[in-house]
Amino acid sequence: MTAFLEIKDLTKTFTLKGFFGKKTDVHALNGISLSVEKGESLGIVGESGCGKSTLANLMVRLEEPTSGDILLDGISIAHKKEKELRKLRSRIQIVFQDPYSSLSPRMTVEQILTEPMQVMGQYTSRERTERASELLELVGMRSSSLRKYPHEFSGGQRQRISIARALTTEPDILILDEPTSALDVSVQAQVLNLLTDIREKMKLTYLFISHNLAVVKYISDRTAVMYKGRIVEIGPSLSILTSPMHPYTKELLAAVPIVGKPFCPPRETAHETGGTDAERGCIYYDRCPIKDEKCRRERPVLEERQEDHEVSCWKL
Fold first, then answer.
1. Is 64 exposed, middle or buried (0-12, 13-18, 19+ CB in 10 A)?
2. How far is CA 315 from CA 73, 236, 238, 289, in A?
3. β-bridge pairing 92-95 and 173-177
4. Domain range summary for the chain, segments of one domain joined by +
5. Which positions ≥6 away from 189 have C-beta within 8 Å?
6. CB-based contacts of 50: which residues, under 8 Å, 6+ apart?
């Protein structure tokens, strides 16, 4: 049975130009493979620079992958031409991290919400306005907000507008790229509750990206942990949070501040030591507290260690 959303060996390489024209390849994604069932919420977690947002951009084709494929309901979207993508774009939408920069300051809320429907050729002008009003109410805002501009709203309200905009094309999948990280803690909880309610009402599939494991657990059925463009652990969210297996996942959890817990600074990393074979060894070798010679020479693959819980580590 084919998964509703399937990512196959996805890679993304950026070429950077340095001094004297020297070029360096940076592998933002390095062989990512994932499958998501219809109606499921999959969390993607990892530190800054691990490739989470690059994955989000590839999913909605803001960028094109270097290699690999993305299948939506069995249809490849990774390398389609822009004209062929238009119909598929309505099925997969994204909510960005920063609600302040993702909304045009020159457009009213009505224009922001009706523009996607107009581009997709959906509804009449009057129907688009009615639909925009309904979506505002769905995200907990009054229809009178249609005539206002983004600067008249708080950060939490702007993110609600961003969520409403993502829903205008009646998508099957929402890509949520750190949707609460720029908000106050109290507002974060409100937005997370809203997203949970919307998923249940509209039977949506979520890809929820965050650096916070606790937030991901709250909204996701399963969680995938990313490091240096690869998945190092994936399993049920509760299992990942309470019984992490990969050393990197344990390090992420240890970094979460807890009231009454003494602060433990992270271990000094050794990314520049060149201790591992970059082409063959484990990507976590330099930071790993339990590494051995095999880790330096051979790259582990994801293997099931418990039911539905896969880990990429030789030492388990």
1. exposed
2. 36, 21, 22, 11
3. parallel
4. 5-228, 229-316
5. none
6. 226, 227, 228, 229
Residue pointed to by tokens 């130009």: 17
Query: Each residue's pLDDT tens digit in the chain (316 positions)?
Result: 578 999 999 999 999 887 777 888 889 999 999 999 999 999 999 998 899 999 999 999 999 999 999 999 999 999 888 888 888 889 999 999 988 899 999 999 999 999 999 998 889 999 999 999 999 999 999 999 999 999 999 999 999 999 999 999 999 999 999 999 888 888 999 999 999 999 999 999 999 999 888 889 899 999 999 999 999 999 999 999 999 999 999 999 888 766 555 656 555 443 433 444 556 899 999 999 999 999 999 999 999 999 999 999 999 8
Two structure tokens written together for 247: 């050393």
Q: What's the whole-model pTM score?
A: 0.90
Report whether 286 contacts 204 (CB < 8 A): no
CA distance 314 to 291: 9
Strand ranges, E, within the chain = 5-17, 23-36, 41-45, 67-72, 75-76, 92-95, 173-177, 205-210, 222-227, 230-236, 303-306, 309-311
Q: Which of 217, 177, 224, 221 is nearest to 199 (CA)?
A: 221
Alpha-carbon 181 to chain mean position: 12
Domain 5-228: give its CATH superfamily. P-loop containing nucleotide triphosphate hydrolases (3.40.50.300)
Picking from 314, 310, 292, 315, the residue whose alpha carbon sits closest to that of residue 231 is 310
At residue 229's C-alpha, the angle toward residues 281 and 74, to 5°, is: 115
Amino acid letter, residue 90: S
3-state secondary structure of 276: coil
